[in-house]
Fold each of these.
Amino acid sequence: MLFRSPTVISRAAEVSAVELDPLTQQFVQVTYDRGRVTAVASGTITLQQQQDNAIWRTQTFTIPDTAIVTFDGRQVSLTQIPTGASARIDSSGPVGGTLAVVRVNAYSIGRVVPLPATSSTG
């Protein structure tokens, strides 16, 4: 079976890229995981990742105290994110190394979590 690469990534459960950090001039890996929140505890959040009705996986993320956590655009504590909310977990780190969560963006139940912009001019 021949698979074709997508021309647009808009509904993906996970997207990963390698980018040059302009401040350090070092390459870093960034990953964006999206899904529905199934559990929240002090320091962890669990997402069920899917596209359309196909479930890909359920994954628990450790959220460091330094991560920015928002719900509907306002900064909150992790435990204020309700089960059932949509969320995107942004992680980064050295290429091929361990990634750390840097941001949790959660939205009201039923809202679709956007992927970050994937291209620019310049």
Amino acid sequence: MTEVQINAVDEELLDTVLAEDVEFSGNMTFRKPLMIKGRISGRIRSSSELHIDEKAVVEADIQAIVVSVKGKVKGNISARDRVELFASCSVDGDVTAPQVTMETGCRFNGICTMVAPQLDAL
């Protein structure tokens, strides 16, 4: 079997980074790429990319174009394009996307459903 490696995003290319000391609870909606390094709980909706860094803890149902996870997520993830699970991540919840990539070593507990892209989703 071939080892899968996902390319990490360059933080400098992102519009917004929520630092490690940020804690947020509630509904989050955004339109430009975002990286979470802190603790978030609630619901996340985006028409862009969401990157969850290694030390981040997210307890939320997530919908975005691309969801890239290095940290911990407890909740369902739905992406219009793809979901990337890095070796360092832990995901407890279902994943739905046309394209799902999991690096060796990632911890995933849920149901993975790969569906055809929906043009009107999100």
